[in-house]
Specification:
three-stranded antiparallel beta sheet; alpha+beta; 307 residues; five-stranded antiparallel beta sheet; disordered N terminus; Chitinase A, domain 3; 54% helix
């Protein structure tokens, strides 16, 4: 349910905090009309921000911006057509169901954040309910279009055999880390560790002396999740080894290599569902593109103005 709510909200909510944003996501300027229904500039900008974040047009080449903008505009037009078709086919949702979905969103966000979101979007609760209803109707109609998609196991196996390199789990490492701001303190800790004092007990001792967090037990992670200048030291170390203090970003890190797990090829059954979803998404995209081209022949698309 959490994943569904996230997908439902991304266009409406993304980048509601406009700090640093150069795109007016609340613009009501009409860019196009789809069978008489307006497509607003703010909707296009929100879709762009949902993908790229708080981008500044000045940082993007004109050609790339044109591609980003036209793709977002086309996506808005497709959604308008999907919504119109859902309404034409009398697909409906009860007010009770919409309120239930909105309440779940409120619960996941928290009441304060929910109200802040509405304020930043200059939207009423009714506006948001209408947004939720429209997104749900679009998804229901898309589900109808996708209802005949079937991904056979032989197709999944064929993809796996042809793309095995995509399913290699990278080497991973698990670390315990103490970080301090002073070089002298870092080497004091390291000296005590070299005298075989227990790492965890020593780390907790220094943690109790500091209001800021200085001790972490990190999960298994790939090397590309670790700053490069630190990762380079870790790669050459062995499990159980405690590294000399490493300076990074104005701090000194004392690191214990807890565990190293080598890279491995994931087997078919570990990635079967992932491949199935990938192939299903490709089929869905193909269906939407074909449907869109067909609907364009009978639709009235009026481009009112540019940005």
């Amino acid at each position: 349910m959490k994943k569904i709510l996230t997908c439902l909200l991304i266009i409406f909510l993304f980048s509601c905090n406009k700090s640093g944003s150069k795109l007016d996501i609340n613009s009501t300027k009409v860019i196009a009309k789809v069978n008489g229904q307006p497509v607003y500039l703010g909707d296009i900008y929100r879709r762009i921000q949902a993908t790229f974040g708080n981008i500044d047009r000045k940082d993007i080449s004109p050609n790339r911006w044109a591609m980003i903008y036209e793709t977002a505009l086309e996506s808005e037009i497709i959604d308008k057509l999907l919504l119109i078709e859902a309404q034409n086919e009398n697909i409906s949702l009860s007010n009770e169901l919409i309120k239930e979905k909105v309440n779940k969103i409120k619960e996941s966000m928290g009441e304060e954040n929910y109200k802040k979101m509405l304020k930043m979007r200059k939207a009423s609760e009714k506006d948001f309910e209408n947004f939720v209803r429209e997104r749900e109707l679009i998804e229901l109609y898309k589900n109808k279009l996708f209802s005949n998609i079937k991904i056979e196991e032989d197709k999944i196996k064929e993809y796996y055999e042809g793309h095995k390199k995509e399913f290699v789990e990278p080497e991973k490492v698990k670390l315990n880390v103490i970080s301090v701001g002073e070089k002298e303190k870092a080497y004091e800790i390291f000296s005590r560790l070299k005298k075989h004092e227990d790492f965890d007990k020593l780390a907790l001792e220094y943690q109790l002396q500091n209001s800021d967090k200085v001790f972490w037990k990190l999960r298994l992670m790939p090397y590309d999740a670790i700053p490069a200048e630190i990762a380079s030291h870790i790669k050459s170390a062995k499990a159980g080894e405690i590294l000399d203090p490493i300076e990074h970003d104005k701090k000194f890190y004392i690191i214990k290599i807890v565990e190293k797990v080598p890279s491995r090829q994931l087997d078919f059954y570990e990635v079967k569902e992932r491949i199935k979803q990938l192939l299903s998404s490709k089929e869905q995209q193909k269906i939407i593109e074909e449907w869109y081209q067909m609907k364009l022949k009978g639709a009235s698309i009026e481009y009112v103005t540019r940005e």
